[in-house]
Amino acid sequence: MFVVKVGGAEGNGIDNVLIDLAPRRDYVLVHGGSNEVDRLAEALGRPIRWLTSPSGIVSRYTDRETMEVFTMALTGKLNTTIVARLQSLGAPAVGLSGVDGGLLTGRRKEAVRSVDNGRVLLVKDDHSGTVERVNATLIRLLFDAGYVPVISPPGVTPQGELINADADRIAAQVAVAMEAEALVLLTNVPGLLREPSDPSTLIREVPRARLLQFMDFAYGRMKKKLIAAGEALDGGVPRVIIASSLQPDPVERALDGMGTVIS
């Protein structure tokens, strides 16, 4: 079996992914929802703020109000929409947030370091966190019964506090817990590019031993995908593919090696 993660940023071909996956029963689907979160936040008059770490990784600032928007957008709308679409295509999908059955348990970060006008600040009211445990028993229960698990953030602490955890890294943790044969990260670009605006500069293969060196070519959210790839490989997943969701049969193509293969 394998794990597929489809991004929620603007321009992703989620329907291409669902059409490709619908006949299969050998996968677990994880999704993000950044565009949906941004749209709902704007509609509610709660514009999104962003934090940039000293290493250049950009993440959403998630205070208590933003966490409410995050949860509404992902579990209240997007997860339900994806599950309904898969069911319309004949797949017995079941939607799960990381809270359900303690599916994604972790810890909230005590503080987040952020660079603002050259100064490094400690942000202490951010509700981001890291998933440390995946309830693989729950996933296998559904998987073995013939259902298609569709998983979304947020995660939850043992104390019941919601945490905004990155969906790429969640997918990596799920792949490790399920002993997956591959992790497929589908996005709105062909893979890791030497030049972000030029699809012809696709890097087709990245050896695990040189993954840190290739971070130099990762811009924006691609950095988190490479971090997730490293975590999956360290956990025993043999292969990670970063590929485009914009073409027909994106999952099949990715499994055939079209994209950036890290192994």
Q: According to CATH, what is the class?
A: Alpha Beta
**Strand composition percent:** 25-35%
Major sheet: order of its strands? 5-10-2-1-13-15-16-14
Query: Which whole number gives the mean pLDDT?
Result: 91
Count the beta strands: 16
State the low-pLDDT regions, or none. none
Distance between the termini: 17 Å
Number of helices: 8
Instruction: Specify the oligomeric state.
Output: single chain
Structural class: alpha/beta
Instruction: State the major sheet.
Output: 8 strands, mixed
Task: Label the overall shape.
Answer: globular
What is the CATH homologous superfamily assignment? Acetylglutamate kinase-like
- Count the domains: 1
CATH fold group: Carbamate kinase
What is the radius of gyration computed over CA atoms, rounded to a whole number of angstroms? Answer: 17 Å
* String of helices and strands: EHEHEEHEEEEEHEEEHEEHHEHE
Corresponding CATH architecture? 3-Layer(aba) Sandwich
Helix content: 25-40%
Please give a handful of descriptors for the protein shown.
25% strand; 16 strands; Carbamate kinase; 8 helices; two-stranded antiparallel ribbon; 263 residues
Please give a quick description of this structure.
The protein is of the alpha/beta class and 263 residues long. Helices cover 33% and strands 25% of the residues. Helix 2 crosses helix 3 (64-88) and helix 5 (167-177) packs parallel to helix 7 (222-234).
